[in-house]
């Protein structure tokens, strides 16, 4: 029976997309594709776009370099990343909004704390000061040392200046050092110094200015700053060189501090200051304006533009947790008064520790390491900015959404030349969890229910990517607004790109598995879906599908289904036998791969030739070793009917060789429905989870499907054809059906290679050869 959500017996993607979005009417501007892609050869770059956690196989890098257009509309803080028209693309470029922050989060902090008293209760502050100390001593005592390089920099945590610089403290200082003022004048100056900054920034206090003056032992000058109307909102002042130093190479410059918007106008309040005082003011001011980080509106990440002089409020930092060719991950703790991320989470997903993904050129040399390949192509700041903004555009599509299995971007910032993305820190990635965690008894319902629940959740997240949202960009014949679905694929599903977050406020929580690393994701609308050559495809070798080596075959959402099927098989192996089983599975399927110059590959498929042939037709099939390992899982003493059914579904609907002539792989709805049915069965109180192992049997020779090799693959097999594994029996030829345009994905002009170079394989032999 046909329903609005079904079409020709299959889910109606458009109807389901509309259903998914019916509760979300917010108009969202999106970027549907990355653009102008540059190649960083993987033999030079190593593992490129790292997951927030993970240490696995190399991922090829695609650099999207969109132009940055600042809107001149009513909201100048919105920065749009727009795509150029691409060859072969009929899509109108969408835009993904980025909320740009240029005030270090001052307005956001003021808005959040607008209802708090100007002078907070001492009992509610984390700092401890001794009232008998001088104001200078109290200020020095509450400073925090930043763990961010260059180490040794200090900052005042938010709220400490309000705690110490009270109206009474200001009055006492002014009275002592400006005896010519009347009590009324002193009161007026003190009120100005301690006034509350309004969220719109029109009024600001002088507390930060006053703190700097106290440390310079020039507290008396605060009245000059008030008279000159130079307040905290004017910080940071800019150091302007007033005349040249013939010995400039010695490091000292003759500078005066000026307002940033009036660099040519000397400040009256500083007329009698010496150069050293100007220089010291310039150094001390940064400690009073350490940024405050906060989440933006849903799908609008805040992008902080920070100077290289800004002091990051990190109180702990572990750099280079994971490193790639030009990006690396660090682990930090942010001072709790400098962010509101915990308050924005319905369930506490971390202990206040955050992951920062850095996009930075020459990471090796900057950290005293030897570059992995001295002949690697240079990475410009323009390349980094393009990749950085492209990844933000993709992450924005899912950040702050209602699916807990998709990673949320908390914030992004540029600190000098360092481009960074900020996320909650995960307890582990899926591969690390398999390595370091015992699966527990296989026949305990709770253990299997958690696995099925998480796999079902990840499939729902992948479904969100595959049919993300609808956008109103066209009209139907009647002139009414019509919605188009936006299709996508992740492109790099693997255990290292699946993070496990444990909820800190729930003792015994097993964790939530979250899909991350959207560096290879692609999005498009229905009228832009086409087929493109395999040289444009990137991905991790282990989990890539056979169509990556085929000529003129669609790389579609089905790409992710194959990769997810591989991950699910390894998940079942862990469930039944822990990490030992997972590792055995890897070793079991390793075999020389002609397309990788004979190096061992643990991918799940292989290219084969007809028995006895020396050239001509080739086919692709799921490796015999994979089939045999699955048979072994069926015969495991703890294997149940639910696992039998799951393994059968993976092999029949997910790990299926596809070409333009055969598209039998299931989609996300098929996978989700199967996992949901298994979960519902297990959830039934009357259902008993019992072992039903099958007799151990040898795997039959798997079916091979004739495929047309890509030009790169043909070159590699030309002189090595007889090294391909022989296939006993017929390689099935399937007639060419009419092309279904609903499965292809449009790609911009890219030069990312799929078939690796010989040098790249040698460089990554530890990964591919084992």
UniProtKB/TrEMBL annotation:
- Region described as Disordered: 1-23, 67-102, 733-770
Molecular-function annotations in GO: ATP binding; protein serine/threonine kinase activity
Task: Report the InterPro entries cross-referenced here.
Answer: Kinase-like_dom_sf, Prot_kinase_dom
In Pfam terms, one family for this protein is: Pkinase
- Residues of the Protein kinase domain: 315-647
Which UniProt key words apply to this protein?
Answer: Kinase, Transferase
Where composition is biased (Polar residues), the residues are 1-10, 78-91, 751-760
Record-linked Gene3D superfamilies: Transferase(Phosphotransferase) domain 1
Kinase: present as a keyword of the record? Answer: yes
Q: What is this protein called?
A: Kinase-like domain-containing protein
């Amino acid at each position: 029976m046909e329903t609005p959500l079904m079409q020709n017996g299959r889910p109606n993607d458009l109807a389901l997309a509309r259903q998914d979005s019916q509760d979300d009417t917010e108009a969202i501007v999106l970027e549907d594709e990355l653009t102008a892609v540059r190649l960083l050869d993987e033999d030079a770059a190593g593992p490129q776009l790292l997951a927030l956690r993970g240490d696995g196989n190399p991922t090829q890098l695609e650099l999207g370099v969109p132009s940055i257009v600042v809107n001149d509309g009513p909201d100048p803080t919105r920065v749009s990343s727009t795509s150029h028209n691409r060859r072969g693309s009929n899509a109108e470029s969408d835009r993904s909004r980025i909320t740009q922050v240029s005030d270090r989060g001052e307005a956001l902090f003021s808005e959040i704390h607008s209802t708090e008293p100007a002078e907070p209760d001492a009992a509610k502050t984390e700092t401890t000061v001794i009232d008998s100390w001088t104001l200078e001593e109290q200020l020095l005592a509450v400073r925090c040392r930043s763990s961010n390089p260059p180490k040794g920099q200090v900052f005042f945590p938010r709220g400490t200046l309000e705690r110490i610089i009270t109206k009474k403290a200001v009055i006492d200082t002014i009275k002592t050092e400006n005896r010519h003022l009347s009590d009324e004048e002193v009161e007026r100056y003190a009120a100005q110094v301690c006034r509350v900054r309004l969220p719109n920034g029109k009024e600001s206090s002088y507390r930060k200015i006053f703190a700097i003056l106290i440390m310079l032992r020039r507290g008396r000058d605060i009245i000059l700053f008030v008279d000159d109307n130079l307040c905290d909102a004017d910080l940071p002042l800019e150091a302007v060189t007033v005349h040249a130093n013939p010995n400039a190479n010695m490091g000292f410059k003759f500078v005066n501090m000026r307002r940033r918007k009036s660099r040519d106008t000397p400040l009256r309040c500083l007329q009698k200051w010496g150069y050293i005082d100007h220089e010291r003011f310039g150094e001390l001011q940064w400690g009073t304006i350490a940024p405050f980080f906060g989440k933006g509106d849903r799908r609008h990440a805040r992008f902080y533009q920070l100077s290289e002089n800004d002091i990051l409020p990190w109180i702990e930092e572990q750099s280079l947790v994971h490193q790639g060719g030009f990006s690396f991950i660090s682990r930090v703790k942010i001072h709790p008064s400098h962010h509101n991320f915990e308050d924005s989470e319905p369930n506490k997903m971390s202990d206040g520790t955050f992951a920062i993904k850095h996009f930075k050129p020459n990471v090796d040399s900057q950290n005293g390491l030897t570059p992995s390949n001295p002949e690697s192509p240079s990475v410009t700041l323009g390349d980094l900015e393009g990749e950085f903004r492209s990844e933000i555009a993709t992450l924005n599509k899912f950040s702050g959404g209602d699916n807990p299995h998709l990673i949320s971007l908390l914030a992004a910032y540029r600190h000098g030349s360092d481009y960074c993305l900020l996320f909650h820190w995960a307890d582990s990635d899926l591969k690390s969890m398999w390595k370091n965690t015992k699966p527990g008894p296989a026949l305990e319902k709770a253990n299997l229910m958690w696995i099925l629940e998480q796999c079902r959740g990840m499939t729902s997240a992948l479904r969100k990517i595959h049919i993300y949202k609808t956008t109103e960009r066209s009209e139907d014949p009647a002139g009414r607004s019509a919605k188009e679905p936006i299709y996508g694929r992740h492109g790099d599903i693997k255990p290292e790109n699946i993070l496990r977050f444990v909820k800190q406020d729930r003792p015994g929580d097993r964790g939530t598995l979250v899909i991350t690393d959207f560096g290879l994701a692609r999005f498009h609308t229905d009228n832009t879906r086409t087929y493109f050559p395999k040289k444009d495809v990137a991905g991790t070798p282990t989990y890539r599908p056979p169509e990556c080596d085929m000529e003129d075959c669609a790389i579609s959402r089905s790409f992710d289904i194959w990769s997810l099927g591989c991950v699910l098989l390894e998940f079942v192996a862990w469930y039944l036998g822990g990490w030992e089983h997972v590792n055995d599975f890897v070793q079991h399927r390793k075999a020389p791969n002609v397309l990788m110059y004979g190096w061992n590959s643990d991918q799940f498929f292989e290219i084969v030739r007809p028995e006895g042939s020396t050239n001509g037709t080739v086919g692709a099939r799921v490796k015999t070793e994979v089939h045999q390992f699955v048979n072994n899982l069926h015969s495991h003493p703890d294997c149940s009917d639910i696992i039998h059914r799951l393994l059968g579904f993976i092999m029949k609907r997910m790990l299926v060789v596809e070409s333009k002539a055969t598209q039998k792989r299931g989609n996300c709805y098929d996978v989700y429905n199967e996992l949901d049915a298994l979960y519902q069965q297990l959830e039934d109180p009357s259902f008993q989870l019992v072992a039903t192992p099958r007799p151990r049997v040898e795997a039959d020779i798997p079916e091979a499907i004739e495929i047309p090799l890509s030009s790169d693959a043909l070159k590699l097999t030309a002189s090595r054809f007889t090294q391909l594994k022989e296939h006993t029996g017929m390689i099935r030829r399937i007639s060419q059906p009419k092309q279904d345009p609903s499965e292809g994905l449009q790609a911009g002009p890219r030069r990312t290679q799929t078939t690796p170079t010989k040098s790249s394989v040698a460089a990554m032999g530890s990964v591919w050869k084992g």
